[in-house]
Amino acid sequence: MHFTRVHHIAIICSDYERSKHFYTNILGFRVIHEQYREERRSYKLDLQVGNHTQIELFSFEHPPKRPSHPEACGLRHLALEVENIEEAIAYLHTHGIETEPIRVDPITGKRFTFFRDPDELPIELYER
Description:
Strand content: 35-45%
Number of helices: 2
Number of strands: 8
């Protein structure tokens, strides 16, 4: 088996309109397709991230919270690559989004930080 890339990441949100605004208007991901699935009373929003990756944003009634503290087993965070970490952080701050202090990856020497989506999902910014 040979994998060529990650196709998409699926995220379940607790407040669809709030998360849709966050991922489209603040982070700027382009909407590919939006669908309301009546049988599930659920939205599915496909978003384009860069040239190769997508995010599927789902809404379900009363999804349980994901344990983040202490760290839980399973998918840990979403990492997004940026050209300039200071510009990205400044942009997030203009939208009232707090970020952690910039750290340096000891292996690559690249700078990174974290912020959180409306459901407290950790998102990493990793400088190219």
